[in-house]
Write a structure and sequence with these properties.
By secondary structure, this protein is mostly helical. The chain is 78% helix and 0% strand.
Length: 92
């Protein structure tokens, strides 16, 4: 039987990639669950190691994507503050 925490880690890792901003918290939780599930899989000899590793990879990728997304938003508003113009599409 596949470890339930490994499935949770994979789900959180995928959510971290798909959902902006909130995905950062999903990624942190995904890393936690994947590490715990990897330890449980080794000690209890359960299935799901590949699922846990995939969750860890997705969570790390999600953190990188979320941090780049946040830096992009900060850079955008920093550049716009110098020109005193904000795009009307962001105000909607």
């Amino acid at each position: 039987m596949t470890n339930n925490k490994a499935i949770t880690a994979l789900t959180l890792g995928i959510m971290a990639i798909v959902i902006p901003i909130i995905g950062l918290f999903c990624a942190i939780a995904g890393i936690y669950y994947s590490r715990v599930s990897l330890k449980e899989i080794k000690t209890k000899d359960e299935a799901g190691m590949n699922v846990a590793i995939a969750g860890l990879v997705c969570s790390i990728g999600g953190i990188i994507m979320q941090l780049l997304y946040i830096l992009l938003i900060i850079a955008y508003f920093a550049v716009m503050s110098f020109t005193n113009q904000v795009s009307p599409s962001l105000l909607i």
